[in-house]
Amino acid sequence: MAHQKRMNSDAEAKSVAGSAYTGRPAGRTPEIWGRIPPRNMNFTGREELLAKLRAGIAGDVTAVVPHALHGLGGVGKTQMTVEYAYRYRSEYDLVWWIPCDQPVLVRSSLAGLAPFLGLPPATTTGIEDAANAVLDRLRRGDPYSRWLLIFDNADQPEDISDVIPHGPGHAIITSRNHRWKGVVDTVAVDVFTREESIEFLNKRVPRAMSPGDADRLAEALGDLPLALEQAAALQAETGMTVEEYLRLLSGRTSQLLAEGKPTEYPVSMTAAWALSVAKLSEKLPEAVELLRCCAMFGPEPIPRAVFSRVPPGLDEQLADLLGDPIRLSRTIGELGRYALARVDTPGRTIQVHRLIQALVRDGMPQDEQGRIRQEVHRLLVTATPTAPEDTTTWNRYFELLAHVEPSGVAESRDGAVRRLALNFVDYLYLSGDYRSAEIFVRRFEERWSADSGDDDADVVDARRQRGIIVRELGRFTEAYELNQETLARMEPSAVDDPGRQASLLLLLNSIGADLRAAGDFFAARDHDQESLGRHLDAFGPQHPNTLRVMNNLALDHGLASDYLAARGTHEKCYLEMWAGPPGIGRADILSSWSGLARAVRLAGGYRESCDLGEDAHAYGSEELGAEHPWTLRTAKDLAIARRRAGLLDASIEVADDVHARYLRLFGLDHPDSLASATCLANVLRSIGETEKAFELVSETLDLYPKVYGIDHPYYHGCACNLALLLRVAGEVRRARELNEKSLLGLEAKLGRDHHYSLTIATNLASDLAALGDLESACRLGRGTLRRLRALLGEDHPMTLACAANLSADLRADGAEDEGTRLFEDTIDRYARVLGPDHPDAVVALEGRHLDCDFDPPPI
User: Fold this and answer.
1) What number of other Cβ atoms are within 10 A of residue 261's Cβ?
2) pLDDT digits 0-9 by tens, 447-470
3) Collapsed DSSP state (helix, strand, coil) of residue 660
4) Which helix (H) or strand (E) holds 559?
5) Any residues with CB less than 8 A from the CB of 133 and at least 6 apart, and which?
6) What one-character DSSP code corresponds to residue 669?
7) How do strand 349-351 and strand 302-303 relate by DSSP bridges?
8) Who wins on pLDDT, 344 or 482?
9) E strand or H helix at 839
10) What is the DSSP string of 281-301?
11) Are 525 and 565 in contact (CB under 8 A)?
12) Percentage of residues of the chain with pLDDT beyond 90
């Protein structure tokens, strides 16, 4: 076998890499050093491969591309990457490890970087938002341009292609999949050279082997690093001679070959593993039992806390072990000493190599695997918090998330395990990782449906959760249809089942949001009014579920233009939530607080709304983070309140920031992105940036049908904003046509006596006046003013705007007395309600027309 020349120092490696080095202090530690496994003090060889990798990475001057180490399982790809990270750490300001065994968890690992980059943590903004924010910072090199991301054990290139930031830093991928060869620069990692094998064995075993013994052992193990580690650990622990080891290994190998074992794993590795397990079993049988248990977890670190409690029903042998902390510590230590597990004492974790896990599982009959999986499920149920809405539990959920799918939670028919699965879905949803939440809940729903039927309670509950998640992703029609199907299945079975009745009430709350998303605001109000009564009967007035329905009903009142009812209901709900009943989270409180500020604004209290909104936004930023969905919604509403109050400079600052965040976090066509775009466009028009406003409104209007449909009130409201800008640009006929079309659409959906309809009618009257049809303008203005006074009151700013416009049109049309009386009354009211210096009051005093725009509330 050919030998490689080994370099004996970093200095020698530096000479190969050449200009790759910056001359920074060799011992320098990166400012951010995240989740890198401990350095292998017995790392051996690989110098040419490391030098090749470093030269390739550092040589990317014009275009930085990822580099991949690929090779068979057990050849040491991960160990080589760990060694690279430690050896070249002085070249980086940030080094971060991202396990990729489960693609849906990659974003969780990225999100963990957020606080280190000056971003809100995932526990406050949600995993999806935090991960996107991290990727944006890395791409821009802000605040670090010298970064290294390591994507360990990535299978398919398409699984992580969207999370590899193409920026000024470096990315290394490890994979068993040769497909990476055509995607990125690759370095093939093979087994050790014989020289490296011999060197490793002499380093690993305290008693030096003779060159001949080491050579024979390496030959028998095929120079596979993981097999050599197993052999060396066993000999170091037992004092076994090489001769005896080879004899036993030969017997194991012959047995494996005789049994026709599959060739997915190297025979040498399988034999070496089996021999280590056999010897450990003789010394400490309970260690093998614990190893078999660990094999059913994921390949990521397992928190030691999982083994700190003995759940009911646990196997007696395992229960005895977990109940004896001294024996448990010794057992875990033995697994580490036999190289069957990596024990991280500072991090309080246990990790078993994925290849060893596979070998352990393959060595057990199916029924035994099933029994141990049940033990693992009991451990997970006991170790996982039961309140995913509590942000203080999210770190534990994050630690255990990597073990949900590998442990076979989806295959369990146990009710407690299925509740555990749905709690993890709730955690992903509440933390903002909607995509992963949907993937998980779909898998659970499909498997449980196959096992237990479509009408099973757990299947129906999973389907209910999926409806909520799909709606948050902006797929409103799909959510509505899914929830209606779930309702049809749930209602008949809930009659005599209290548990299903509780789930049915949760579904009813969700259906109210579906009706709002469809633009059926009055139907949503009636639905939620009935739902609130049923919640009060079932749970009482202070239960979290009841308060959430109350909050939704307050939103319904606002969408139905009953702002006083909205204000009163939001205020009652906020006070109840602020009292802190169990089950109410910070996001619940902020949702209610923000809703109250919005209702106050819609009722005409612009200054009060600013004060409330500023307090609520400060709370959200501190408790949930600046980019939590509800903090952003609160900020967007604050921008609207400031604009209505005439504080245009303060408004544009917030509106611009919120819109930029929404685009980065959610993209262009998310409902919240559309709302923030509408808000920003309205502020731009108010400060005279009409061309920018027109461009933004036009783009937004094109996107609304995709999200809401062509007949949704929000689409017509956004069209009203475009019509305003058309009139400003002198295209008055187009403005009139668009307003007439929008008014017809809103009347069909909401009727004429709705705030949105009357807003467009007020603007349409201005179009008619601008076209010289003063008679029609006055006729439309009189009717609209009468309706606004009845709906909103005589002092509401919307009513005053309509009155001011009508007074100008009356005087222009020759009705001087009527127009003057209305003008003087309106100016007096403006002075009392908004103050004489408010921009609206100034426009009215000058006899010019006021433009009334639209901002869509959250649904």
Assistant:
1) 15
2) 999 999 998 889 999 999 999 999
3) helix
4) helix 544-559
5) 114, 117, 119, 120, 125, 627, 664, 665
6) T
7) antiparallel
8) 482
9) helix 839-845
10) HHH-HHHHHHHHHHTTS-SSP
11) no
12) 56
Q: How many CB atoms lie within 10 A of CB 369?
A: 18
Residue 143, preceding peptide bond in cis (omega within 30° of 0)? yes
Under 8 Å between Cβ of 844 and 809: no
Q: Tens digits of per-residue pLDDT, 187-223?
A: 888 888 899 988 888 888 866 678 888 898 888 888 8
Report whether 125 contacts 627 (CB < 8 A).
Answer: yes
Q: What average pLDDT is seen over the chain?
A: 88
Contact of 850 with 804, CB cutoff 8 Å: yes
Q: Distance between CA atoms of 108 and 397, rounded to whole angstroms?
A: 11
CB 32 within 8 A of CB 113: yes
User: What is the pLDDT at residue 7?
Assistant: 31
- Whether residue 19 contacts residue 81, with contact meaning beta carbons closer than 8 Å, is answered with no
CA angle 173, 176, 181 (to 5 degrees): 65
SS3 state at 419: helix
Q: Which amino acid is at 783?
A: G
Q: What is the tens place of the pLDDT at every residue in 613-654?
A: 999 999 998 887 788 788 999 999 999 999 999 999 999 999
Angle at 787 between CA 783 and CA 788, to 5 degrees: 115
* 832 or 61, which is more confident: 832
**What pLDDT was estimated at residue 265?**
58
Tell me, what's the pLDDT at 681? 97
Q: Take residue 527 and report the two structure tokens written for it.
A: 């639905």
Higher pLDDT, residue 628 or 594: 594
List, in order, residues 6 or more apart from 574 with CB less than 8 Å away. 589, 592, 593, 595, 596
> How far is 635 from 620, CA to CA, in rounded Å?
9
Cα(301)–Cα(353) distance, integer angstroms: 10
Distance CA 21, CA 490 (A): 65
607 pLDDT tier (thresholds 50, 70, 90): very high
Q: How far is CA 403 from CA 57, 273, 296, 773, in A?
A: 33, 23, 9, 71
The label of the residue with tokens 């006729």 reads 779
d(CA 668, CA 703) in angstroms, rounded, equals: 8
Relative to beta strand 32-34, strand 94-99 is: parallel
- For the chain, list the domains and their CATH numbers: 10-188 (3.40.50.300), 194-283 (no CATH), 585-675+688-708 (1.25.40.10), 713-859 (1.25.40.10)
Single-letter code of the amino acid located at 360: V
SS3 349: strand
Look-up: residue for tokens 């991280």? Answer: 344
Instruction: Give which of 533, 540, 535 is closest to 507, Cα–Cα.
Output: 535
Least confident of 262-266, 402-406, 449-453: 262-266
Of 81-90, 266-275, 405-414, 846-855, give the lowest mean pLDDT range: 266-275
Residues 799, 800, 806, CA angle at the centre, nearest 5°? 95
User: How far from each other are the two terminal CA atoms of the chain, in whole angstroms?
Assistant: 69
- DSSP states of 129-148: HHHHHHHHHHHHT-S-SSEE
What is the chain's length? 859
Distance CA 229, CA 275 (A): 13
pLDDT of residue 1: 32
pLDDT of residue 26: 55
Q: Which amino acid is at 139?
A: R
pLDDT of residue 176: 82
pTM of the model: 0.78
Rounded Cα gap, residues 45 and 203, in angstroms = 12
- Residue 600 has phi, psi (to 5 degrees) of -60, -45
Q: What is the largest CA-CA distance in the chain?
A: 117
Highest mean pLDDT among 344-348, 624-628, 710-714: 710-714
pLDDT band at 64 (very low <50, low <70, confident <90, very high): low
Q: 816 pLDDT band (50/70/90 cuts)?
A: very high
Instruction: Label residue 130 exposed, middle or buried (CB < 10 Å: 0-12, 13-18, 19+).
Output: buried
